[in-house]
Request: fold
Amino acid sequence: MNAAPLEDEVLESVNGGTMIPYIVRPGDSMDEIAKHFHCTVEQLCRWNNIRNPQDLKAGQKLVIRF
Reply:
């Protein structure tokens, strides 16, 4: 997986943390994205208001927090 933030865009800092956007690519899974960004699937779901990680769709924009 060649996970990369959108054009290396960094979003504003929120509560002392930095957020970057990530666009889901065909074949991506929440497990792979979480591993790439050193977080958990649960964190990804919480940050992006996702109830079912299986509902991930190509083209969907996720926010990754650091």
Observations:
- The first strand starts at residue 11 and ends at 14.
